[in-house]
Structure formats: C-alpha cells, structure tokens
C-alpha cells in the first residue's frame, strides 16, 4: 500500500513538473512574441496537458506529430495571439522533419531496431517522434535540430552500413494508417484486472503486479486500480503486450461470462 502511495505521489510530481514546463513555454511565446515548441510528448503526457490547457483557458497552441491524426508522439507548439493557425502550420517544416531510411534488398527491421539504434547514439527519446516502418525501410519523424547529427551517425552503425538515408521535408513523409487485428476475450466482469489477465495471458495475481509496476494505461492515463471499470471504446495499453481498443460486448455465455471484442494495434 505504501509503495502504491509513493508511486502516486511520484506521478503527481512528474505531472506538476510537466505543467510547469508547458506554462513556461506558453509565457515565452506570449512575452517574446515568438513561436515556441516542446520536444515530443507521449500519449499519456498529451492527454494530461490537453486537460491542463483547457483548465488554464489557453487556446493559442497546436499539437503536431507529422502523421496526421495517427501520430502517437507529438510536439506542442505555442504561438502569439497575432498568429493564425495557418501561419503556425507553415513553420512546422522548420521544427520537424523526416529521416527516410531505405534498407538493402531482403533486409527488414522492426520498430525496436530503429529505436535502439537511435538510443545507442545518445539521443533522448523526446527528440524522436513516430517511427513509420515500411517494407523497405522506415521514415523516422524527428526534431530538425538533430537531423544532420542523426543522419551522419546512424549510418555508422553496423545494422545500417548498407542502408541509404536522407533528410526529407515533413510534408513529404508518407502518412501511415493504423493497422489492427481483431480478437475476442472472455471475462467474468468489466474490471481492469480481468482484461489485463486475458490480454497478457497471465494469472489475476500477475495482472495485479503489472498494475502496481505501472505497466497499464487506460485512455493514455496510468491506471493502478484493479477494480477500474472498462467501457466500450476505451483504449488499453499494457507495456510489453500491446495496445487494444475495446469494441463491444458481443454476448454473454451460459456461465454468465462476457465475450468482448477488441482491436489490437499491430
């Protein structure tokens, strides 16, 4: 119980620090009359900041990730009141760009291979947005400030020695639609721990451990309560197991259990 309390306090402190950084960025944009931006934020941070900005009645901002509405990671851009959204959007290509990697024939890498290569170069995760993996390579969305360094050094890694790499305008990055696979699970109730147990293919005890280890998110918010009720259209993220969207309760079995249909992000 004490561990749970400590984790909740830690999470609250991190959120306050995030809020303070966002307010500083906003005040800079207003006082200096300049466009300013954050590093890339993850979905949990984005969800929290959207609520924070709403409570503060801050409206002169835009989120941008380079992959349209499908962007998992996005920067937050603040701008002076005299700017229109259209004017701000014209500056996106100065802030964010793409790194287009083409692999040799018959070579294909997963998302984690590209990410681990970037991390090996000492680049912080916050400087990198979505990694759009394709059959013959990938488009990596990054802050423009690291583009030259990343292009030069990534090709020095053994795994990319025979690949080609070029910096491209963010508008030239080919958008990628989310892909899903359908699946169904059977749960005794709509409690979160039931979903974690079925989706992670583990016992209820192990599911509770995963919750305490902060590996479970509901609608991009960290969730540690086993009894949390899950509703249709909720998005569940289990670190190491994947992301899922609850679609519908398909039917009830003879033993009064629920058959639930979901979509899993590929």
What does this structure look like?
The protein is of the alpha+beta class and 266 residues long. Helix content is 33%, strand content 27%. It has a six-stranded antiparallel sheet. Strands 5-6-4-7 form a four-stranded antiparallel sheet. The two termini are 35 Å apart.
Descriptive key words:
single chain, 266 residues, alpha+beta, Alpha-Beta Plaits, Structural Genomics Hypothetical 15.5 Kd Protein In mrcA-pckA Intergenic Region, Chain A, 6-stranded antiparallel beta sheet, globular
Task: Indicate the topology.
Blueprint: H1 2-32, E1 36-37, H2 43-55, E2 61-64, E3 75-78, H3 85-89, H4 92-95, E4 96-102, H5 111-120, E5 128-134, E6 137-143, H6 147-154, E7 164-169, E8 180-187, H7 192-199, H8 204-212, E9 216-218, E10 221-222, E11 235-238, E12 242-252, E13 258-265
């Amino acid at each position: 119980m004490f561990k749970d309390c400590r984790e909740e306090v830690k999470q609250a402190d991190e959120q306050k620090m995030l809020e303070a950084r966002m307010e500083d960025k906003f005040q800079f944009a207003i006082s200096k009359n300049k466009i300013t931006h954050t590093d890339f934020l993850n979905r949990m941070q984005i969800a929290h900041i959207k609520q924070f900005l709403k409570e503060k009645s801050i409206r002169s901002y835009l989120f941008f990730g380079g992959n349209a509405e499908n962007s998992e990671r996005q920067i937050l851009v603040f701008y002076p009141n005299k700017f229109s959204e259209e004017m701000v959007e014209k500056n996106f290509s100065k802030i964010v760009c793409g790194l287009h990697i083409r692999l040799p024939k018959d070579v294909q890498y997963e998302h984690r291979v590209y990410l681990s290569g970037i991390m090996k170069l000492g680049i912080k995760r916050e400087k990198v947005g979505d990694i759009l993996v394709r059959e013959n390579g990938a488009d990596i969305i990054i802050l423009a400030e690291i583009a030259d360094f990343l292009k030069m050094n990534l090709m020095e890694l053994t795994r990319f020695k025979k690949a080609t790499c070029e910096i491209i305008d963010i508008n030239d990055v080919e958008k990628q639609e989310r892909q899903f696979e359908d699946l169904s699970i059977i749960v005794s109730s709509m409690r979160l721990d039931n979903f974690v147990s079925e989706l992670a293919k583990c016992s209820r005890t192990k599911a509770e451990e995963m919750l305490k280890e902060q590996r479970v998110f509901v609608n991009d918010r960290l969730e540690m309560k086993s009894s949390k009720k899950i509703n249709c259209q909720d998005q569940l993220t289990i670190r190491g197991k994947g992301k899922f969207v609850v679609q519908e309760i398909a039917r009830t079995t003879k033993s009064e259990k629920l058959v639930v249909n979901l979509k899993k992000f590929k």
